[in-house]
Write a structure and sequence with these properties.
Length: 510
């Protein structure tokens, strides 16, 4: 019989202190300091203490990743894939446990947390299949007796810096393609959601990922994230988060000769035409604007509605929104959870104030923090609707990242498209119409990376390219293998001359 672990006398009720995972070992941060992580639905509940890492931890993590690289890149991709299949299986088995922990950690309602874990499962299995593809191509040479082809090569050590709003899905979008391509990595999750990423890494460890291939370093952006953008051992930085931080990441990456892939903000639009199924459009708006408490980069924060159905749409939307139940996402009857932290709460409330001061905009519904009963212990905001918003107002231009939606009237499709495109971002857009010509016209003219017909702006599937234009990104797309392999691998072009002479391309043709 295995010896029983001695019960910890003192400290039995102390919060758990989590560790970084570096070189296949769970280790304390060099600083010996930790950050508290609390449940945003009830801040009395401490989730745990998580490492406050610094450049010293990043140093050892990058060294571990660099040491693991030669063996991992030499491992056949189908073998790397076997580990991902096992990882996908473990995530499936633990879906409920991880989803509940996620809701406690970041607030999204349980069914959405399950969706987040499911997205990571889908991404893991989908990427594992790529182990037997990773295709390059052969092509004719311009010279006789010469073969030309190209293959994908791993890049090296990758830094992955991930946000709190999809704390397992987004790490998986980066981690899985990085791994299948033969890279090693250091991941730095957001301070608000380290636990969900720890779960992903623990499952990867159990699935048999070799030591040093995946490393996790936790802590604040300035302390643990910044060194990941400058360390000379890192070749690629992949970042998802705000446009402001993304710009800093891009500057540091450029200064330090790193490849850089960015996914940033959005100010997504739903366009509702006069021929739309209004009930469907309302349902799509409620889901897109208030799902995840509006904290998705794909959230529907602007609804441009044809003037002839505007009042009817607002009435229906008001009624549906009034029916939403705000509260702790672990309760099965709750539709909208808290926002992530005090800073987010302050920012959202300040935008609501800005909206009220904008000439002509009307605060139509909501607008306040909710503090009744239990809710006073969390960061809850009423689902909020502004009507008669004009396209150039700040609430219609800037990313609020909360349950606040602006309803903007329009005269016709042309104006809707102009308003829709009239922001600095370009992530996601949608149109509700029964007219195929309008749907196709909008599809062609919207300047967004993602476009939906008769659906909300949220809900992208993992096997299609995910990302946006303009200030949303820097030209890369995650998700789909057709695009994400281009982030996490580099092309090598190979020429094999079997003519026995020194043939000179271009010159030989003169
Ligand atoms: C994000 O909004 O940060 O498309 C990611 C969606 C999700 C992913 C969102 N599958 O809404």
């Amino acid at each position: 019989m295995p010896a029983k672990k001695p019960a910890k006398k003192a400290g039995r009720n102390l919060p758990e202190k989590y560790k970084n995972y570096i070189g296949g070992r769970w280790v304390k941060p060099a600083s010996g300091e930790y950050l508290e992580n609390r449940n945003p639905a009830d801040t009395r509940e401490l989730i745990g203490l998580f490492p406050a890492s610094s450049a010293r931890d990043v140093e050892t993590a990058v060294e571990a990743a660099a040491a693991a690289l030669p063996k991992w890149r030499a491992t056949p991709a189908p073998k790397r894939a076997e580990i991902l299949y096992r990882l996908g299986q473990l995530l499936m088995e633990r879906k409920e446990e991880y989803s509940r922990a996620m809701t406690r950690e970041m607030g999204k309602v349980l069914k959405e947390a399950r969706g987040d874990v499911q997205e990571a499962i889908d991404m893991t299995f989908y990427t594992a299949g790529e182990g037997r593809r990773l295709q390059g191509y052969t092509t004719p040479s311009e010279l006789p007796n010469k073969m030309a082809m190209c293959v994908r090569q791993p890049i090296g050590v990758c830094s992955l810096i991930t946000p709190w709003n999809f704390p397992m899905a987004i790490p998986s979008w980066k981690m899985m393609p990085a791994l299948i391509c033969g890279n090693t990595l250091v991941i730095k999750p957001a301070e608000d959601t380290p636990l969900s990423t720890i779960h992903l890494v623990q499952a990867a460890e159990e699935a048999g990922i070799p030591r040093g291939v995946i490393n996790i370093v936790m802590g604040a952006g300035e302390d643990a994230g910044a060194p990941l953008t400058t360390h000379p051992g890192v070749r690629l930085v992949s970042f998802t988060g705000s446009t402001e931080t993304g710009r800093l990441v891009a500057i540091e990456a450029a200064r330090n000769d790193k490849i850089c892939s960015l996914e940033m903000g959005g100010k997504n639009v739903i366009m509702v035409m006069d021929d739309a199924d209004l009930d469907l459009a309302v349902e799509g708006t409620v889901w897109g604007a208030f799902g995840t408490s509006g904290q998705r980069c794909t959230a529907s924060s602007r609804i441009v509605v044809h003037q002839s159905v505007y009042r009817q749409f607002v009435d229906k939307l008001t009624e549906k929104t009034r029916g939403l139940r705000v509260g702790n996402g672990l309760r099965s009857n709750v539709d909208v959870g808290p926002v992530i932290n005090q800073q987010a709460l302050d920012k959202i409330l300040s935008y609501i104030e800005i909206g009220q001061n904008e000439d002509g905009a009307k605060l139509h519904l909501g607008g306040s923090r909710l503090t009744d009963g239990e809710l006073r212990h969390g960061y809850f905001v009423e689902p909020t609707i502004f009507t008669d918003v004009r396209p150039n107002m700040r609430i219609a231009q800037e990313e609020i990242f909360g349950p606040v939606v602006s309803i903007i009237p329009c005269r016709d499709l042309d104006e809707a498209i102009e308003i829709g495109n009239g922001v600095k971002y370009g992530l996601s857009s949608s149109i509700f119409t029964r007219d195929v010509n309008r749907a196709m016209t909008a599809m062609e003219r919207m300047e967004t990376g993602i476009f939906y017909v008769n659906s909300s702006t949220i809900g992208a599937e993992v096997h299609l390219p995910f990302g946006g234009t303009k200030a949303t990104g820097n030209g890369h797309r995650e998700g789909a293998m057709i695009s994400s392999l281009d982030i996490f691998s580099e092309w090598k072009s190979i020429y094999i001359d079997y003519s026995g002479t020194l043939q000179k391309a271009q010159i030989d043709n003169q």
